[in-house]
Protein backbone atom coordinates (compact mmCIF):
# COMPACT_ATOMS: atom_id res chain seq x y z
CA UNK A 1 0.00 0.00 0.00
CA UNK A 2 1.37 3.45 -0.90
CA UNK A 3 1.51 5.71 2.19
CA UNK A 4 -1.17 8.48 2.05
CA UNK A 5 1.34 11.35 2.09
CA UNK A 6 3.08 9.94 -0.99
CA UNK A 7 -0.25 9.74 -2.78
CA UNK A 8 -0.90 13.35 -1.84
CA UNK A 9 2.47 14.42 -3.26
CA UNK A 10 1.74 12.50 -6.45
CA UNK A 11 -1.68 14.11 -6.80
CA UNK A 12 -0.24 17.62 -6.31
CA UNK A 13 2.31 17.04 -9.03
CA UNK A 14 -0.33 16.01 -11.60
CA UNK A 15 -2.24 18.33 -13.92
CA UNK A 16 -5.86 18.89 -12.92
CA UNK A 17 -7.65 16.48 -15.35
CA UNK A 18 -5.45 13.56 -14.47
CA UNK A 19 -5.68 14.67 -10.87
CA UNK A 20 -9.46 14.24 -10.83
CA UNK A 21 -9.22 10.77 -12.39
CA UNK A 22 -6.60 9.67 -9.89
CA UNK A 23 -8.55 11.09 -6.95
CA UNK A 24 -11.57 9.13 -8.16
CA UNK A 25 -9.50 5.93 -8.39
CA UNK A 26 -8.16 6.47 -4.88
CA UNK A 27 -11.69 7.10 -3.64
CA UNK A 28 -12.75 3.75 -5.07
CA UNK A 29 -9.77 2.06 -3.43
CA UNK A 30 -10.65 3.64 -0.09
CA UNK A 31 -14.23 2.39 -0.44
CA UNK A 32 -12.96 -1.17 -0.90
CA UNK A 33 -10.12 -1.65 1.60
CA UNK A 34 -7.99 -4.78 1.42
CA UNK A 35 -9.86 -7.73 2.85
CA UNK A 36 -13.30 -6.16 2.66
CA UNK A 37 -14.12 -8.02 -0.55
CA UNK A 38 -14.33 -11.38 1.17
CA UNK A 39 -13.92 -12.99 4.61
CA UNK A 40 -10.40 -14.01 5.72
CA UNK A 41 -9.09 -17.30 4.31
CA UNK A 42 -9.32 -20.04 6.95
CA UNK A 43 -5.90 -21.70 7.39
CA UNK A 44 -5.05 -24.42 9.92
CA UNK A 45 -1.49 -25.04 11.18
CA UNK A 46 -0.50 -28.07 13.24
CA UNK A 47 1.88 -26.08 15.50
CA UNK A 48 2.10 -22.49 16.74
CA UNK A 49 5.31 -21.44 14.89
CA UNK A 50 3.73 -22.32 11.53
CA UNK A 51 0.63 -20.38 12.56
CA UNK A 52 2.88 -17.40 13.35
CA UNK A 53 4.43 -17.50 9.88
CA UNK A 54 1.04 -17.68 8.15
CA UNK A 55 -0.19 -14.68 10.18
CA UNK A 56 2.97 -12.75 9.34
CA UNK A 57 2.55 -13.38 5.60
CA UNK A 58 -1.22 -13.24 5.34
CA UNK A 59 -2.05 -10.46 7.81
CA UNK A 60 -5.75 -9.64 7.95
CA UNK A 61 -6.45 -11.70 4.82
CA UNK A 62 -6.09 -15.00 6.73
CA UNK A 63 -7.72 -16.50 9.84
CA UNK A 64 -5.35 -19.01 11.46
CA UNK A 65 -6.25 -21.93 13.73
CA UNK A 66 -3.47 -23.88 15.48
CA UNK A 67 -4.15 -27.49 16.50
CA UNK A 68 -1.52 -28.17 19.21
CA UNK A 69 -2.59 -26.00 22.17
CA UNK A 70 -0.17 -23.62 23.95
CA UNK A 71 1.93 -25.38 26.58
CA UNK A 72 1.62 -28.80 24.92
CA UNK A 73 4.59 -30.43 23.23
CA UNK A 74 3.87 -31.35 19.61
CA UNK A 75 5.92 -34.52 20.26
CA UNK A 76 3.63 -35.82 22.96
CA UNK A 77 0.38 -34.29 21.69
CA UNK A 78 -2.43 -36.82 21.49
CA UNK A 79 -5.07 -35.59 19.09
CA UNK A 80 -8.74 -36.37 19.51
CA UNK A 81 -11.10 -37.09 16.62
CA UNK A 82 -12.61 -33.67 17.43
CA UNK A 83 -9.35 -32.06 16.28
CA UNK A 84 -10.33 -33.09 12.77
CA UNK A 85 -13.51 -31.06 13.02
CA UNK A 86 -11.30 -28.04 13.78
CA UNK A 87 -10.11 -28.29 10.18
CA UNK A 88 -13.64 -27.17 9.36
CA UNK A 89 -13.74 -25.32 6.07
CA UNK A 90 -9.99 -24.59 6.05
CA UNK A 91 -8.64 -23.88 2.59
CA UNK A 92 -5.13 -24.92 3.60
CA UNK A 93 -3.52 -27.12 6.24
CA UNK A 94 0.12 -26.36 7.04
CA UNK A 95 2.05 -29.21 8.64
CA UNK A 96 5.72 -29.86 9.40
CA UNK A 97 5.60 -33.39 8.00
CA UNK A 98 7.60 -36.55 8.63
CA UNK A 99 6.93 -38.34 11.89
CA UNK A 100 6.48 -35.09 13.83
CA UNK A 101 2.82 -34.26 13.20
CA UNK A 102 1.86 -37.46 11.38
CA UNK A 103 -1.19 -37.69 13.65
CA UNK A 104 -2.99 -35.17 11.46
CA UNK A 105 -2.40 -37.30 8.35
CA UNK A 106 -3.79 -40.34 10.20
CA UNK A 107 -6.88 -38.42 11.33
CA UNK A 108 -7.43 -37.05 7.83
CA UNK A 109 -7.08 -40.45 6.24
CA UNK A 110 -9.55 -42.01 8.65
CA UNK A 111 -12.12 -39.35 7.79
CA UNK A 112 -11.28 -38.98 4.06
CA UNK A 113 -10.59 -35.31 4.73
CA UNK A 114 -9.60 -33.42 1.56
CA UNK A 115 -8.20 -30.13 2.88
CA UNK A 116 -5.18 -29.20 0.70
CA UNK A 117 -1.89 -29.58 2.61
CA UNK A 118 1.41 -27.75 2.55
CA UNK A 119 4.16 -29.94 4.05
CA UNK A 120 7.20 -27.97 5.18
CA UNK A 121 9.75 -30.81 5.28
CA UNK A 122 9.21 -31.71 1.62
CA UNK A 123 9.62 -28.17 0.26
CA UNK A 124 12.17 -27.92 -2.56
CA UNK A 125 15.36 -26.26 -1.37
CA UNK A 126 15.02 -27.42 2.22
CA UNK A 127 17.97 -29.42 3.51
CA UNK A 128 16.61 -31.65 6.28
CA UNK A 129 18.87 -32.97 9.01
CA UNK A 130 18.53 -36.58 10.18
CA UNK A 131 16.75 -37.11 13.49
CA UNK A 132 17.90 -39.35 16.33
CA UNK A 133 17.80 -43.01 15.34
CA UNK A 134 15.76 -45.04 17.76
CA UNK A 135 17.19 -48.22 19.29
CA UNK A 136 15.28 -51.41 18.38
CA UNK A 137 13.65 -51.63 21.83
CA UNK A 138 12.30 -48.07 21.80
CA UNK A 139 8.59 -47.60 22.21
CA UNK A 140 6.62 -47.55 18.94
CA UNK A 141 6.25 -43.74 19.07
CA UNK A 142 9.99 -43.33 18.49
CA UNK A 143 10.64 -43.52 14.76
CA UNK A 144 13.23 -46.00 13.47
CA UNK A 145 14.62 -43.30 11.23
CA UNK A 146 13.33 -39.85 10.59
CA UNK A 147 13.98 -36.26 9.68
CA UNK A 148 14.65 -33.62 12.33
CA UNK A 149 11.44 -31.56 12.22
CA UNK A 150 12.65 -28.34 13.96
CA UNK A 151 13.47 -26.55 10.74
CA UNK A 152 11.51 -23.37 11.62
CA UNK A 153 14.19 -22.53 14.21
CA UNK A 154 16.62 -21.53 11.43
CA UNK A 155 15.61 -17.95 10.49
CA UNK A 156 17.39 -18.12 7.12
CA UNK A 157 15.59 -21.30 6.15
CA UNK A 158 12.36 -19.47 7.01
CA UNK A 159 13.51 -16.50 4.88
CA UNK A 160 14.69 -18.48 1.86
CA UNK A 161 12.43 -21.53 1.72
CA UNK A 162 9.49 -21.63 4.13
CA UNK A 163 8.16 -18.06 3.90
CA UNK A 164 8.32 -17.85 0.08
CA UNK A 165 6.50 -21.20 -0.24
CA UNK A 166 3.80 -20.21 2.28
CA UNK A 167 3.34 -16.82 0.65
CA UNK A 168 3.02 -18.32 -2.83
CA UNK A 169 0.43 -20.80 -1.59
CA UNK A 170 -1.62 -18.08 0.10
CA UNK A 171 -1.46 -15.92 -3.03
CA UNK A 172 -2.75 -18.86 -5.11
CA UNK A 173 -5.78 -19.04 -2.79
CA UNK A 174 -6.33 -15.28 -2.95
CA UNK A 175 -5.44 -14.25 -6.52
CA UNK A 176 -6.70 -10.63 -6.38
CA UNK A 177 -4.30 -9.89 -3.50
CA UNK A 178 -1.04 -11.11 -5.09
CA UNK A 179 0.61 -7.71 -4.58
CA UNK A 180 -0.42 -7.74 -0.91
CA UNK A 181 1.33 -11.10 -0.33
CA UNK A 182 4.40 -10.05 -2.31
CA UNK A 183 4.75 -6.91 -0.17
CA UNK A 184 4.30 -8.80 3.09
CA UNK A 185 6.83 -11.43 2.01
CA UNK A 186 9.44 -8.84 1.01
CA UNK A 187 9.05 -7.01 4.30
CA UNK A 188 9.21 -10.19 6.37
CA UNK A 189 12.29 -11.43 4.49
CA UNK A 190 14.21 -8.23 5.11
CA UNK A 191 13.30 -8.36 8.81
CA UNK A 192 14.55 -11.97 8.90
CA UNK A 193 17.88 -10.80 7.48
CA UNK A 194 18.11 -8.21 10.28
CA UNK A 195 17.20 -10.89 12.81
CA UNK A 196 19.96 -13.13 11.49
CA UNK A 197 22.54 -10.35 11.88
CA UNK A 198 21.36 -9.66 15.42
CA UNK A 199 21.55 -13.30 16.46
CA UNK A 200 25.03 -13.65 14.93
CA UNK A 201 26.25 -10.66 16.94
CA UNK A 202 24.56 -11.91 20.09
CA UNK A 203 26.10 -15.37 19.88
CA UNK A 204 29.56 -14.24 18.77
CA UNK A 205 31.27 -15.14 22.07
CA UNK A 206 33.91 -17.87 22.31
CA UNK A 207 31.67 -20.45 23.98
CA UNK A 208 29.82 -22.66 21.50
CA UNK A 209 28.63 -25.73 23.49
CA UNK A 210 25.19 -26.31 24.93
CA UNK A 211 23.11 -29.08 26.47
CA UNK A 212 19.54 -29.11 25.15
CA UNK A 213 16.52 -30.55 26.84
CA UNK A 214 15.44 -32.32 23.66
CA UNK A 215 17.19 -32.15 20.26
CA UNK A 216 15.24 -29.14 18.96
CA UNK A 217 18.09 -26.74 18.17
CA UNK A 218 20.21 -28.50 15.56
CA UNK A 219 19.11 -26.31 12.62
CA UNK A 220 19.58 -23.23 14.81
CA UNK A 221 22.93 -24.60 15.98
CA UNK A 222 24.06 -25.42 12.44
CA UNK A 223 23.22 -21.85 11.36
CA UNK A 224 25.01 -20.17 14.28
CA UNK A 225 27.86 -22.66 14.73
CA UNK A 226 26.80 -24.01 18.09
CA UNK A 227 27.59 -27.54 19.34
CA UNK A 228 24.98 -29.68 21.01
CA UNK A 229 27.13 -31.80 23.29
CA UNK A 230 24.18 -33.67 24.73
CA UNK A 231 20.44 -33.73 25.38
CA UNK A 232 18.45 -34.67 28.46
CA UNK A 233 15.72 -36.43 26.47
CA UNK A 234 16.63 -37.98 23.11
CA UNK A 235 12.89 -38.13 22.38
CA UNK A 236 10.76 -35.41 23.88
CA UNK A 237 8.74 -36.83 26.74
CA UNK A 238 10.97 -39.92 27.16
CA UNK A 239 13.14 -39.73 30.27
CA UNK A 240 16.84 -40.61 29.92
CA UNK A 241 18.25 -43.95 31.06
CA UNK A 242 20.78 -43.93 33.97
CA UNK A 243 23.53 -44.67 31.47
CA UNK A 244 22.49 -41.75 29.24
CA UNK A 245 22.41 -39.47 32.30
CA UNK A 246 25.88 -40.55 33.39
CA UNK A 247 27.42 -39.92 29.98
CA UNK A 248 25.65 -36.56 29.72
CA UNK A 249 27.09 -35.45 33.08
CA UNK A 250 30.57 -36.48 31.97
CA UNK A 251 30.29 -34.61 28.67
CA UNK A 252 28.81 -31.50 30.30
CA UNK A 253 31.51 -31.38 32.98
CA UNK A 254 34.24 -31.83 30.40
CA UNK A 255 32.88 -28.95 28.31
CA UNK A 256 32.26 -26.87 31.48
CA UNK A 257 28.65 -26.23 30.48
CA UNK A 258 27.26 -23.41 32.64
CA UNK A 259 23.56 -24.09 31.95
CA UNK A 260 21.13 -26.72 30.68
CA UNK A 261 18.32 -25.59 28.40
CA UNK A 262 14.78 -26.36 29.53
CA UNK A 263 11.51 -25.81 27.66
CA UNK A 264 8.01 -24.75 28.74
CA UNK A 265 6.37 -27.76 27.08
CA UNK A 266 8.46 -30.45 28.81
CA UNK A 267 8.93 -31.38 32.47
CA UNK A 268 12.18 -29.73 33.65
CA UNK A 269 12.74 -31.74 36.86
CA UNK A 270 15.40 -34.09 35.49
CA UNK A 271 17.28 -31.13 33.98
CA UNK A 272 17.21 -29.24 37.29
CA UNK A 273 18.56 -32.23 39.19
CA UNK A 274 21.19 -32.76 36.54
CA UNK A 275 22.24 -29.10 36.58
CA UNK A 276 22.75 -29.25 40.35
CA UNK A 277 24.90 -32.34 39.81
CA UNK A 278 27.62 -30.34 38.09
CA UNK A 279 26.97 -26.84 39.44
CA UNK A 280 25.13 -25.48 36.40
CA UNK A 281 21.90 -23.51 36.15
CA UNK A 282 18.91 -23.99 33.84
CA UNK A 283 17.82 -21.52 31.13
CA UNK A 284 14.39 -21.54 29.51
CA UNK A 285 14.22 -21.65 25.70
CA UNK A 286 11.05 -22.08 23.67
CA UNK A 287 10.91 -23.77 20.27
CA UNK A 288 7.13 -23.31 19.96
CA UNK A 289 6.14 -19.89 21.25
CA UNK A 290 3.18 -18.89 23.38
CA UNK A 291 0.25 -16.68 22.28
CA UNK A 292 -0.20 -15.65 25.94
CA UNK A 293 3.26 -14.04 26.17
CA UNK A 294 3.70 -10.89 24.03
CA UNK A 295 7.43 -11.66 23.75
CA UNK A 296 6.74 -15.09 22.25
CA UNK A 297 3.67 -14.42 20.12
CA UNK A 298 5.35 -13.42 16.85
CA UNK A 299 8.12 -15.28 15.07
CA UNK A 300 10.77 -12.55 15.13
CA UNK A 301 10.16 -11.77 18.81
CA UNK A 302 10.25 -15.46 19.72
CA UNK A 303 13.59 -15.93 17.99
CA UNK A 304 15.05 -12.82 19.68
CA UNK A 305 13.83 -14.17 23.01
CA UNK A 306 15.51 -17.51 22.26
CA UNK A 307 18.76 -15.88 21.11
CA UNK A 308 18.96 -13.94 24.40
CA UNK A 309 18.36 -17.18 26.31
CA UNK A 310 21.08 -18.96 24.34
CA UNK A 311 23.52 -16.12 25.02
CA UNK A 312 22.85 -16.53 28.76
CA UNK A 313 23.11 -20.31 28.58
CA UNK A 314 26.40 -20.28 26.68
CA UNK A 315 27.98 -17.98 29.26
CA UNK A 316 29.91 -14.79 28.58
CA UNK A 317 33.53 -15.94 28.37
CA UNK A 318 35.81 -18.95 28.56
CA UNK A 319 36.33 -20.24 32.12
ZN1 LIG B 1 10.79 -30.84 19.34
Task: Return the CATH topology of the largest domain.
Answer: Rossmann fold
Quickly give the CATH architecture of the largest domain: 3-Layer(aba) Sandwich
**Spans with pLDDT under 50 lasting ≥5 residues?**
1-17, 22-32
* Mean residue pLDDT: 86
> What is the CATH homologous superfamily assignment of the largest domain?
Nitrogenase molybdenum iron protein domain
Strands of the biggest beta sheet: in what spatial order? 2-1-3-4
Number of domains: 2
Distance between the termini: 53 Å
- As a percent range, the share of strand residues is 5-15%
Oligomer: single chain
Which cofactors or ions or other ligands sit in this model? zinc ion
What structural class do helix, strand and pairing data support?
A: alpha/beta
Shape: globular
Largest sheet: 4 strands, parallel
Tally of DSSP helical segments: 11
Element pattern in H and E:
HHEHEHEHEHHEHEHEHEH
According to DSSP, the number of beta strands is 8
What is the CATH class designation of the largest domain?
A: Alpha Beta
Q: Kindly provide the radius of gyration, computed on alpha-carbon positions and rounded to a whole number of angstroms.
A: 23 Å
Amino acid sequence: MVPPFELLTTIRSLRSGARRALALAIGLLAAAPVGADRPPIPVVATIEPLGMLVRELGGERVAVTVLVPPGASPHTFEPQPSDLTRLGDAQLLVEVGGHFDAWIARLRQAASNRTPVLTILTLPGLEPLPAETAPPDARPAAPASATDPHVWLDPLCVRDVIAPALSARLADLDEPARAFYAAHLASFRSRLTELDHEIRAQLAGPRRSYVAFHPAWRYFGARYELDEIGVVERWAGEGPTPRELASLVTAAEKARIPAILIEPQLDPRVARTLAREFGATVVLVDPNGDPADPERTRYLDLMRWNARAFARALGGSEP
